[in-house]
């Protein structure tokens, strides 16, 4: 089809997005999809031939390139090859898949676990498999897009509550019919703001109104809790979440997603979720890398200590310089800029000084709340963090954002 010869909503959407990207590129503000040429020690990377400090990484404990994890992946390739024989249900299940799921269930203190090929797909298939027409789903206003898409795909009545507003959530739950199936779902750590869901209250409300509770722990595993096992440990609450979802591509340096919970739940997903039944299995190397990474988190608790110290240094330093970092308590540190243009310009100035940060603009965040979405990891050293903060400060000062 010649897109230029057809005028409909689809072609207009394509043209509008192209126009926006072209406009950003024209002003030299396009920072996305930059290829990292080499990963270096101390959370540094080589991009466009320059060594830069990486402040946009999801590898919160600095496990990318860990020798034990790399070695586990290599052994899996030697034993199983680079792929599987198909979908898990038929010929695709390997012993390493079963080992990984057992490791996850032990780590999350549940009876069982299931893995999928991406975190996005995990939310999509879990929500849409469990919920359907006539059911009700209640989702935090700034939940990840994969949660929103899963809720929409389910066909259930979709209710969004104001961000972390438990009073609003209770009002919505109270107004739902008592006899219907209900699911309350939220991120544990919100991916753009860095703040933490009020788990004690959301657990209380879910029980009170007979709703399942699903928590997406993409940004809390390896980040929250004394040993890094996540949000339940952070609040000292034990096993209180019905559906524990997480990814294998952030603190865990692999790819994929998982759900951990009761055996009946996992058995249902294994036989009733389309992304498991109709999608090829995780490659052996990635399953083995994830499996080893969960063990490394428990074996090397000093990484969590470093992450916590680096997080406090970064948040405290930026706030003392006059930047608005919203309500973050974690390694995700938003540096509020306001307009898209300011976020682009601050990014440009920082990258010119070899600090690799990235802008997040509308519609990924609400208009007027564009920002740098900066992150620190356990692999950063304090001197480098201090330097990065100074670069951000000098850039912000030159732009009139801070004094």
Report on this model:
It is built from 15 helices and 14 strands. The chain is globular, with a radius of gyration of 22 Å. Helix 2 packs antiparallel against helix 12 (284-299). It folds into 2 domains: 26-55 and 301-398, Aspartate Aminotransferase, domain 1 (Alpha-Beta Complex); 67-299, Type I PLP-dependent aspartate aminotransferase-like (Major domain) (Aspartate Aminotransferase, domain 2, 3-Layer(aba) Sandwich). Helix content is 44%, strand content 17%. The strands form 3 sheets. Strands 4-10-9-8-7-5-6 form a 7-stranded mixed beta sheet, sandwiched between helices. A 4-stranded mixed beta sheet has the order 1-2-3-12. A hairpin with a 3-residue loop joins strand 1 (36-40) and strand 2 (44-47). It has 403 residues and is an alpha/beta fold.
Give a quick summary of the entry:
With about 400 residues, the protein is α/β, with parallel strands linked by helices.
Which homologous superfamily in CATH is the superfamily of the largest domain? Type I PLP-dependent aspartate aminotransferase-like (Major domain)
- Using the CA coordinates, give the radius of gyration: 22 Å
CATH topology of the largest domain: Aspartate Aminotransferase, domain 2
Low-confidence stretches: none
Enumerate how many helices there are, as a single number: 15
Instruction: Name the beta content range.
Output: 15-25%
Task: Provide the structure class.
Answer: alpha/beta
- CATH class of the largest domain reads Alpha Beta
Binned, the helix content reads 40-55%
CATH architectural grouping of the largest domain? 3-Layer(aba) Sandwich
Number of domains: 2
Largest sheet: 7 strands, mixed
SSE pattern: HEEEHHHEHEHEHEHEHEEHHHHEHEEEH
Mean of pLDDT: 96
